[in-house]
Design goal:
Peptidase_A25 (chains A, B, C, D), Germination protease (chains A, B, C, D), hydrolase (chains A, B, C, D), 9-stranded mixed beta sheet, 19% strand, Rossmann fold, homotetramer, 9 strands
Chain lengths: 333, 333, 333, 333
């Protein structure tokens, strides 16, 4: 049985998952990758700097800065926790902007990628609907804009199947005409773990790369293409059925190893083969039967609204000095 | 490791899946269960009569008549196939009504169970929005109703969490006041197989039983409770993550058995334990980690609209002689 | 030119408008009608008690208690004002309940009348989606309900054209099964003044009468029919084109009278004919041309959501002692 | 009483209404304006060519070609009539494109102006969702596009208040990157007559001008700005309250003139003053009281969906030779 392992590689858009997949094989410290993990009231913050090409290759991620907030409890719908996550997100995003050299006056174009007709892919458009835009005030009556506000514009460019145009091209056209200092692109992602779906937010200064996100972009949104820095905010909202299965087998392996010391006996050869090969096996079995669907939790309607609110509230507070997480929510629906 | 197998039994609302689970253990013919399978242009029609208590116990389903349409290609969004399925559904539903003794003049109350705010649970309310209701014409101007129409009313009673009242009680109150001859209840179901999600329609004369469907009813909609026959139409729109995993392991088992003659070697003990026990294993591993979510395909928004249209178009054609599948679609949105 | 004045009578569902129409003809005090007007931070509160049949006939309203909140600024979308109106509404509604003899433990069924597919008629269903229902907790685990909560259920029965059943009959069926102590019915109304649309809330203990509201009910929801008191909450969301025109002519009359002392000269016979006759004229002209449409402000989507939130927040605070206007909003979307 | 007549001029986006307002004063033939009216199965087709500046000034419309379809019965929701209007629209649009020199291979960018959150302003985005886009097939696999299809792309650029960017600028950016041969811009309009709302479709080769449509654009979409021809498709979906009143007074005037020969007596000075002055009067009275709202018929949700379907179906048939009105509907939702 010959397997095309490349084709079957684990599909994830999250740096923490790439890191995690090395966990078994790698030393605590991966050369070229600086990692810092902080736990704060149920929110796990992982700051990951991929500093050079060696590190990038090792971890399988583009060079850049990554911040991930993981909040397993987020799925319970607790309003208090949601506000707290928005506040932490605002703080981290603000620091991130400073870290990559964006000053408090730099203008920002927020880009909501995805398809508003496909609930798990509607995160970007939903965030765009809930952020405070101010650019038109700066354009039309610059003298009357109160201090503490930044110049913000926002668009939801739609998806290729509905527009016939790559979202990347639409954004490029808008950037050329409106000349923002930076882009913030929001996109729904695929995770390799069902547990992270709708509970994780990733911030990265690497932009959007072809093939990432749910909608399978063919062209990216990067500094190289757009001429200005592009910060990507991503939230996993879907999972492949195959990665759920693969992940479950992995969990069974550790579970039995711990409990019975005889996982090998229970799991047979499945115990010994490396993850990537096992995933290939799972996919080979599921795909011909049409079982390798992309799935999302049943409660996606509510989850996506909650997390879009968190991101929009956090962005409003981070981007405008005059707005803080306490009142930022008032600007969202 | 002690397992509560009852608690961990495979969750399915489909009779064909109950049948399928016996496939390994049972002879071709289960006593008390009459089965008839027909293949028709990509539509597999299974007619299953559970004739007595012995059969009911064996197969794990309430005594009654079950018809299932399985259309694997339905997920591809082909309008032509959708129309064909609506026509077959209309024909089968009409025969089913005759079979259980409902005449062409009997009045029907259509009940759309489920929650319109939760996309995979919104099938019932969506069907209700698209069926032709005529009862008010019969009430207000009985002389002017054209021949070929039946007296139809339709309600979407909502879910317990939004109304504070069991949908069963709401329906009972309406039945007592409006006295229909029969109930047709539409509900979104859970399947044990991701493949059947949004590709399968089940018709049964057993009504709705407590705990069935997505919304976990505490009281049923049955002839015993309502005093009139209740036909249930169900479409699986979700799956438990655990059943996806369990199903995948099952498929791997057959796959390797076929291919390498050494499945036991590859799968270890997983190969030998019975399905129910294996599912218990999977659940035990997934649940504490919050991984046993209920999931639905990413494209659920479109699927649910398509299948609601098929059911509504089919019902309109089956319930009114004056409507045929060709023009029935005109009455749906 | 013969006019059927009955047919052409001004269409309004608001007691304050009935009162207003008498303003020119009547003394300050109408016998059998006790009136009390209070101004409070931009909210005009009119309490009107129609005490006997003489008063009822005079004012053209059913005997009963009416409270109206008029908030002209409400249309500006100010969140602060919205919260204030919710608080005043909560206070008035609570007093109203005491006034008509409903104690703090009485159970309530909230009925959201109207059609969720017709934006200006969707007020009732929207309120139902945003009220806290608790009845199921009282039913399932009565010992564990915290003090300060009342037993609340809520339904949106739909409209005749979609269900084939009068909403009144559906509610009656539910009342007979669930036995609430009182009904609170929310309905969208027609106003005679565009100015009052989406800025006015009326509370009345008269229930819902046939022909009232947008959806033209044929049967009512009253104590006589339901056996329990029915409080109606109404918000005008539409206007007839003819009443806009008639109203404008009335305004022109006063305007010119004030400004030029020669309104009669400017307006001709239009100045002298009584309001009802003038409206008949206007309708006679508009109707054959299909101009007498029912209209709603362009911004209806936002208005209806805002006012539904105010009513739901106010009801939550008024019905549950444990909830106050400050935290009641948290329960609405 | 001094009136700023400019400010109070009748607000209409329809050429037929500009023409109509001259009807009393002008000869049958306005110099520089060629008019052709055709009646066809309940559809009134007016073709109006404003040929020179003199004509443009006279009629108060930009030089260009205008086609208007008026279908008073459209509001009744008859599916057959809707299909017929779509077919006539397709035919007229196809001829219009030829007339202004666009060949069958010219590529088109469809622009849906307006705000999807404001029902009467959502026409443009709704049409965009329902047109067949093909540009990506031409880009990605030009050899495999079947003959009979044109290169179509489509965007809904949003509104200034939600994006912070003029829709004109967004479109300009996209045009510069994707280089279509022509633009087709769809916009919801204001009419001076309630009767025309949702029953009229205007096609014009003048593009979109600042201040037109519901959303009050500050910059236009014209050939001068975009470098390529821009065809505007407009449907009136709203009316000012003041124009309803003014129109009604006008109708009353003709009505009484016809019926009693004494309109002057009935209407007083209102009878004699010119339309523009009368409108100024009406506005002066309504505005300070907040009564001059923009209104839309109560049934706007259904109307807007129906008319968006007609326009999208018509465009699909007109733009692709391989699509005809009979099958074009299949591509819309």
């Amino acid at each position: 049985m010959e397997l095309d392992l490349q084709r079957y590689s684990v599909r994830t858009d999250l740096a923490v998952e790439s890191r995690e997949m090395l966990a078994g094989q790698e030393p605590v410290q991966i050369p070229g990758v600086v990692e810092n993990i902080q736990q704060e009231d149920g929110i796990r913050i992982t700051r990951l700097d991929v500093q050079n090409e060696a590190g990038a290759e090792r971890i399988g991620r583009v060079k850049g800065h990554y911040i991930t907030l993981e909040v397993p409890e987020l799925r319970k719908g607790d309003t208090g926790l949601q506000e707290q996550v928005a506040a932490v997100f605002a703080r981290e995003f603000e620091q991130f902007m400073q870290h990559i050299g964006l000053g408090p006056k730099s203008s920002v174009l927020i880009v909501g990628l995805g398809n508003w007709n496909v609930t798990p892919d509607s995160l970007g458009p939903l965030v765009v609907e809930n952020v405070m835009v101010t650019r038109h005030y700066f354009e039309l009556m610059p003298d009357r804009v109160a201090p503490g506000y930044r110049q913000i514009s926002a668009v939801a460019p739609g998806v290729l199947g509905l527009t016939g145009i790559e979202s990347s091209e639409i954004v490029q056209g808008i950037v050329e005409r409106t000349r923002p200092d930076a882009i913030v692109a929001i996109d729904a992602l695929a995770s390799r773990s069902l547990e992270r779906v709708n509970t994780t937010i990733q911030i990265a200064d690497i932009g959007i790369h072809p093939g990432s996100g749910i909608g399978n972009k063919r062209r990216g949104l990067t500094k190289e293409i757009l001429g200005v820095p592009c910060i990507a905010i991503g939230v996993p909202t879907v999972c492949y059925a195959s990665t759920i299965v693969n992940n479950a087998i992995e969990m069974m392996k550790s579970h039995f190893a711990q409990e019975t010391k005889q996982s090998g006996h229970i799991m047979g050869m499945l115990h010994d083969i490396p993850e990537q090969e096992r995933l290939a096996l799972v996919k080979e079995v599921l795909e011909p039967l049409g079982h390798d669907l992309i799935v999302t939790p049943k409660e996606i309607d509510e989850f996506i609204e909650d997390i879009a609110n968190i991101v929009a509230t956090g962005l409003n507070a981070a981007l405008h000095e005059a707005v803080d997480p306490g009142n930022a929510g008032a600007y969202t629906h």
